[in-house]
Amino acid sequence: MRFDLSDDSVLVVIGSGAGGGTLAHELCTRGINVVLLEAGKRFRLGDFRNDEMFAYQQLTWQDKRIATGNWAAAQYAPDSPTWTAKAVGGTTIPWNGLSYRVQAHEFRARDTYGEIEGASLTDWPIKPEALAPYYDLAEARMGVTGSHGIPTHPANNNYKVLYNGARRLGYKMISNAGLAINSQGYDHRPACRQIGFCNQGCKIGAKWSTLYSEIPKAEKTGKLDLRTQCMALKLEHDKHGKISSVVYADQDGNKFVQKARVVCVAGNAIETPRLLLNSDSALFPDGLGNSSGQVGKNYMHHTGALAFGVFDKPVHMYRGITTPGTVFDEMIHQPRRGFAGGYLIEAVSMGLPFMALMTDSTGWGRDYAGLLERYDHMAGVLMNGEDLPREQNRVSLHATETDQHGLPVPVVHVEEHSNELAMRGHFYQQAAAIFEAVGAIRTHKAPTLSATHNMGTCGMSENPQEGVVNQWGQAHDINNLFISDGSQFTTSTCENPTLTIVALAIRQAEHIAQQLARRKL
Amino acid sequence: MLRLLFPHDAIDDQPYIAVVDTINQMAAARPELSAVLKTGLQELDGFQSEPWLKLSPTRQLEELAMIETSPFFQTVRLTGRFLFYGNKEVWPYFGYEGSSFEHGGYLHRGFNDLDWLPEPGD
User: Fold this and answer.
1) Mean pLDDT over residues A207-222, rounded?
2) Is A376 on the interface with B (CB under 8 A)?
3) Under DSSP, is residue A474 helix (H, G, I), strand (E, B) or coil?
4) Sign of the C-alpha dihedral, residues B49, B52, B57, B59?
5) N or C: which end of chain A has fewer CB within 10 A?
6) What are the residues of chain B with a beta carbon less than 8 Å away from any beta carbon of chain A?
7) Best mutation site among A157, A364, A373, A449 for testing chain B: the one with the most B CBs within 10 Å?
8) pLDDT tens-place string over residues A428-450
């Protein structure tokens, strides 16, 4: 350990993914001592394998979670409703690299869409203009193609199908810009070689990940104390309600208490509220930072679905970047379509093992096998749409089941809103039309079985009664408690969340540094 | 049964047999799995006066459909699916090339060789 457990001048960051890893790096470069707790192991590039099943076991957060409600996860994968990672780098190891800015109107979802029955829409307390400079910084640090003079990639087979189908259908906003995957050498990392196993960890580091793009730079400052396989269990506070320390366990279950001047929680949107709820005390009987009652609530995971066009000519969609490009036309808010908010149509591929698992999760027999036999003649798309915040969609603690540390297991409850059903129906219709426009024999449709994007459970709000944190991710109730991951999202927007998480982390670091300098923290 | 769950006529018996072998190994180490398999197989055989294996494929399929929700069926389906399609030996049959890093990725091995559609413009 670089810093003593008793050193109460350190900042403790919990989680080393897009939020925590970026934040830790930013704080260290500002001369701040950071203890970074990460529940997972530290892998090297050589540890990753181009093997879907192996990588799933190696990287996935598999501590028990229970899904309830009417979403696909509750029906098909109630024991594994989320697909996030447990490792240094967090979900930036298996992520796809899609880096899109939230649109201006999405920050004002309540204002734009109006009151929607059965949803708890509010506007973000951040103006798009305030975040724009941080998006610039994030795109530069991540090497996002199409920004800062970074060229886009050549189109792979799967993207050729989507591009041509979408053009023939009349779509205009089709692009493969916005990938945090090197198209040329950048930041001492090589250009992409179209390996095609992006979700299994990039073996050459062409895709941005905090594991190799942020953490090593933070370590070079001499200010980072990274403690791996250390699971945060509880946050402790003093008699004034100020966070004083973090209780955590190492891989052998030994408990430690690290004092802290400020704590920043970035465990992704299930573990973050869970930690706050598990830190209840006499002073905070409903959990930390929860005077609004909103901790854990408004869980969002995007409206998702898959569609595969089957052709009579080969595609080999799995060759190269897993999500090589996107149709953006449907990202607008256009209520005439029958729903509020928008969605993206993202080209996607998967290997044969995952196809067998995901395309028809209950299927067997001739139809099922016949579909898989068309594997190398298929092109795929994934829907990424806005889903509405609902109070009943929430992360809560199981009444009786506990994990290996004796802490209540998280329950993730989702009741899909009719807005999501309408949006999904529209996507299926459009996806089939895109594929038919380039000669598809048929289009196979499938639900997404687990959530890779998890947001909203410690949401930002202007009004402390409507959310958990302010525009800086700072808890309304507790000055020295920050939320630094996608839990902060007020609404889900229709964009993949990572770029926004990184931009918010850069901005939060700047704010924290200023507050420390002014002795406000 | 596996050949009916995942019918690929041009794939020979070997990969299916490999799944059976693995399931048998798993059952040898796990009594509750062994019990589920035994019960299920008995149920299949019990539908007609003849053993299930001696029935016509059509009848076999009908009876499999009847036990579709049983623990036996689901166990064999889920485990079999995982093992069968995860077996590198069958991948070439589907046109899946598997691990690519050691071959330098697909940058020079056809990542953009689709020739029946035009190149994306602008």
Assistant:
1) 98
2) yes
3) strand
4) positive
5) N
6) 4-8, 61, 77, 81-82, 84-86, 91, 94-101, 104-107, 109-114, 116-120
7) A364
8) 999 999 999 999 999 999 999 99
| Residues A492, A386 contacting (CB under 8 angstroms) | yes
Most B CBs within 10 A among A47, A76, A79, A195, hence the mutation to make, goes to A195
Q: What sign does the dihedral A332-A336-A337-A341 (CA atoms) show?
A: positive
The answer, yes or no, to whether residue B122 has pLDDT greater than 60, is: no
| The pLDDT of residue A498 | 98
CB contact under 8 A, A161 and B96: no
Q: Does the distance separating the beta carbons of B117 and A320 come in below 8 Å?
A: no
Cβ contacts (< 8 Å) between A195 and chain B: which residues?
100-101, 105-106
Report CA torsion sign: B46, B47, B49, B51: negative
Q: Do A364 and B77 touch (CB under 8 A)?
A: yes
Give the type of residue at A283: L
Are A195 and B116 within 8 A, CB to CB? no
Secondary structure of A212-280 as H, E, C letters: HHCHHHHHHCCCEEEEECCEEEEEEECCCCCEEEEEEECCCCCEEEEECCEEEECCHHHHHHHHHHHCC
**pLDDT tens-digit map of A111-163:** 999 999 999 999 999 999 999 999 999 999 999 999 999 999 999 999 999 99
**Neighbour tally for B57: CB within 10 Å:** 10
C-beta atoms of B91 and A352 within 8 A: yes
Q: Which residues, including other chains, have CB under 8 Å from residue A178's CB and lie 6 or more apart?
A: A98, A99, A100, A144, A145, A146, A147, A326
Shortest distance, CA B61 to any CA of chain A (angstroms): 9
In chain A, which residues have their Cβ closer than 8 Å to the Cβ of B95?
A: 314, 316, 375-377
Q: Which is it for the CA torsion B1, B5, B9, B14, positive or negative?
A: negative
For chain A, the average pLDDT equals: 97
Amino acid symbol at B100: S
For residues A469-482, give the mean pLDDT.
Answer: 98
Is A432 in CB contact (< 8 Å) with chain B?
Answer: no
pLDDT > 70: percent of chain A: 100
Tokens, residue B16? 């299916």
> Which pLDDT value is given to residue A359?
84
- Indicate the residue of B5, B86, B114 with minimum beta-carbon distance to A160: B114
The DSSP code sequence of B35-64 is HHHHHHHHHHHHSSSS-GGGS-HHHHHHHH
CB contact under 8 A, B106 and A351: no
Q: Are A505 and A135 in contact (CB under 8 A)?
A: no
Chain A hits for B15, CB-CB cut-off 8 Å, are none
What is the chain B residue with the closest CA to A175?
B120
A310-338 pLDDT, tens digit per residue, is 999 999 999 999 999 999 999 999 999 99
Residue A137 near chain B (CB below 8 Å): no
What is the tens place of the pLDDT at every residue in A30-68? Answer: 999 999 999 999 999 999 999 999 999 999 999 999 999
What are the DSSP calls for chain B, one per residue?
A: -HHHHS--TTS-SHHHHHHHHHHHHHHHH-HHHHHHHHHHHHHHHHSSSS-GGGS-HHHHHHHHHHTTTSHHHHHHHHHHHHHHHT-TTTHHHHT-----GGGTTTTTTTTT---SSPPP--
